[in-house]
Amino acid sequence: MSDIVYENEAAILSFSYEEVVKALERHIIENEVEDDSKLLNWLKKCSGQGEKVIRLKEDKKRPEYLNRIIYLLSDLLSDKMGKFFCKECRLNIPPAQIRVEKTTPFDFQKGMNKTTMKEIQKELGLKSPLRMSGSGGTQFTCPQSHLLLSTID
Ligand SMILES: [Zn+2]
Q1: How far is the CA of 101 from the centre of ligand 1 (A)?
Q2: Verdict on whether the full-model pTM lies above 0.90
Q3: Which of 24, 54, 123, 143 has the fewest CB atoms below 10 angstroms from its CB?
Q4: Residue pLDDT, tens place only, 3-55
Q5: Ligand 1 centroid vs 31 CA: distance in angstroms?
């Protein structure tokens, strides 16, 4: 079985194809989200049913269903699966050493500058200032506190 590799500016994450597909199938049964099914079909097709390595780069312009993979990978990482390479440390980080932090909506908002907030506001077509409601997100950092991946829940 091959791997699924996801790369962003700070890190390279790799997971076994089997782990990802299993987790995704579980998700589909539990939540019945249409985009999850699309993602699963895409993964199966691109990997030739798990024969070829899939390499994904961070890309906000991708269809929404493909970007859902970040949440899936984040779930797997929370379960201590997958491999992390920190570009700054130039080291592979064992899952047990990765720090997982839950952030509150307030922390998230604090970390963003005003321009970003305005852009999101515009994109969503909101008239009032952006307010983060609901839960926050999850951040994954290496032992040297380099931010490797963050998700908004
Ligand atoms: Zn690092």
Answers
A1: 15
A2: no
A3: 123
A4: 999 999 999 999 999 999 999 999 899 988 889 999 999 999 999 999 999 99
A5: 34
